[in-house]
Give the backbone structure.
Amino acid sequence: MSRALRLEKNRWRDWVAALQRAATVIAPVHLHGADIAFDRIGSPAEATLDFENTQDSPKRFLFPQVEPLLRYQRNGGYQVQPLYDEEKRVIFGIRSCDVSAVRFFDLTLGVQDLPDTYYAVRRANTGFISLACHQPCGDAFCICANTGPFLSSGGGYDVQLTDLGGGHYLAEVDTPKGEELVGAAAELFSPAADENLSRRQALDAEAQKHFERDPRLYFAASSRKVSLDNVGEDLWRRMAQWCVSCGGCTNICPTCYCFNVTDAQLNGAGVRSRRWDSCQYPGLTREASGHNPRPEQLHRVKRRIFHKISYQYVARDGMQGCVGCGRCTRVCPGVRLGIPEIGEGIRRAEWK
Amino acid sequence: MEVMERKPNIYLPQIARITDVRDETPDTKTFVFRFRDQQAHDHFTWRPGQFVELSVFGLGEAPFGFASAPTRKENFEITIRAVGALTRALHALGPGDEVGIRGPLGNHFPFDEVQGRNILFIGGGIGLPPLRSLIQNMLDERDKFGEITILYGARTPTDLVYKSELKDWERRSDLKFMVTVDRSEPGWEGNVGMVPTLFPKAGVKPDGTVAYICGPPVMIRFVIQDLVSMGFADEDIISTLERHMKCGVGKCNHCCIGHKYVCRDGPVFSYQQMKGLLE
């Protein structure tokens, strides 16, 4: 389904205020300095839609860095009680790449035949109002991942906003939840005209011309080599030399969801929690005996790339695990060991 | 907003009580469990090869394969060697103590597909318990299978698990059982040598035989090589893969080998499937 509406540009905060009556709104806010990141907002005035992309994706609102799963208590026998976070949320102003990452979570964590219980609860209670990108951000290559700069129907958003210029947003409503979201302030919306829709198409086409990076990332070539294990250990080793195993790339990645589970106990009562883990840490695969099937950093860099771009995973999950946001490149303290750099290194079979 | 139909929580353990503990070796014990809740107990069943995530509350969870057969399901057994913090804590527990159980998890050994064929079990050390689940199951439906051969090896005679059950297997006329140890001890009159040294003595032949192998990774590797060179087909060599697991349900990404999850796609794989894994 898809329905196109129009919203006056200077009224979007009124819509946010209306949404806040039924849900917590998570929106881009200014942090210290120039950084912009997602956070819960109090007043709609805290939110901004004037940004390229947020520092991190809103991943932590669906899959928190530390998440309690259950409480256990010994009272005679053990009592175990699951802990659910059922807060209603709207994520406002999420970019196309990060919406696509949620779609990836739906296919993996939330996969139909065995959904992750805690993810499913949060997901069902979260609405997504996205903001299409007129100007792709510097490190982005969403165009290669088919995850931006604009999304089309079925792309994962409930409502997609496009700044049409001339004082209006186009609001494409794509789901029943999207109808609920615009219904919260129906008076702010009017039907879109044909010229609004053609303007949207023109902006999409124009945005595709403005990638700073060569948008021809040749995922196909690197992906073929990775899928066939044709990269060569020496190249992996040379790339991994620059990796300090910090886990920054996987923490910032909107599609990474490795986690560890731990119990913390006090006076016979305890909480079992999960927290983000990383394939870049040696401990992820280390066994009780001390044996580690991925003993060197090169095996761990290889692992990350295999999970992100191999055909095997695309076939398994129905979607590539990299959405092209470019954050891994930006966050890497080594030599920008991001997916585009590694992808190109693999394609050319060389590394600086 | 629509009322969501919530599926059962895949991370929520059921409470089970230890009903019995048997010493197998100085560092290995067999635990017998029964769910505290009668309904949970009545509904619980599994297939040999599957495993559970066992919680020792306060220390977390670890995966363990079933050591007993679903055909003997009044209780279920798990044989555990004390190697880490959780297993050592478990070894300190006794009858009446409670643990958490999630499962059954993972796939299982081929069973229906191999009816009528000859069956060869090759177990090494603590690798015998998951095979015992299948052995008991097949012996309880003995007429469905051809010849059954069980070959078992351990480091020393002291390290052999299920010592009294091994004697029963030795006495049975409807199966061939042979055991060997790497290093002898006073009083041991049996075979000495690695498990493959039993192959000629047991007359191991590929004809229509399916081989199930469990043991330390290095043993599995050598046994598979030997079986392949004897002419066993890759798909008739069945083993289990082991990786550090956490969630047991294919979410946390600890146990991946290539794009497969040992916990969800395995732990049972044929040699043919193993060869296709990229890591």
About this structure: The mean pLDDT of chain B is 95. Chain B touches chain A through 42 residues (CB under 8 Å).
